[in-house]
Amino acid sequence: MKNVLLVFIGGGFGSVLRYILSRWLNNAENGIPYGTFAANIIGSLLIGIILGLALKHNTLTQSHTLLLATGFCGGFTTFSTFAYENQVFLKAGDFTSFAIYTVASFVVGFLAVFLGIFMVK
Asked: For residue 44, what are the contacts with CB-CB under 8 A and spacing of at least 6?
């Protein structure tokens, strides 16, 4: 039960922060969901740092990892919103934005995870 509570608390904080970031950065005028993109990239970097620290230094307990990686990063990043935003691009026939957003999210997201792990080495 403690583990579920840790994930719940971390996820709540992550979700609220993602909401704030999206309200601040998503722009209806240009249609590009920069807030979601930023949340996914920052979350990828953070999970790389968190799990890198957990593996390298063994300084994080399982509780810390559940709270921060599973909870916070899981609530902060969002594949479902990413998928929906891409559906909007496709429905509007905006294949350029769809391609750029999708490729950039995957490539930069993976690089952010590797960077996070590298930073703690």
From this structure: 77, 108, 109, 110, 112, 113, 116
* Tokens at 16, concatenated: 């609220």
pLDDT > 90: percent of the chain: 72
For residue 19, the surrounding DSSP H or E stretch is: helix 2-25
> What is the Cα–Cα distance from 38 to 22, expressed in whole angstroms?
9
Q: What is the pTM of this model?
A: 0.79
Q: Give per-residue pLDDT as tens, 52-97.
A: 888 888 888 999 999 999 999 999 997 877 888 999 899 999 999 9
**Count of CB atoms situated within 10 Å of the CB of 66:** 22
List the one residue out of 116, 103, 121, 118 whose CA is nearest residue 50.
116
Integer Cα distance of 110 and 108 in angstroms: 6
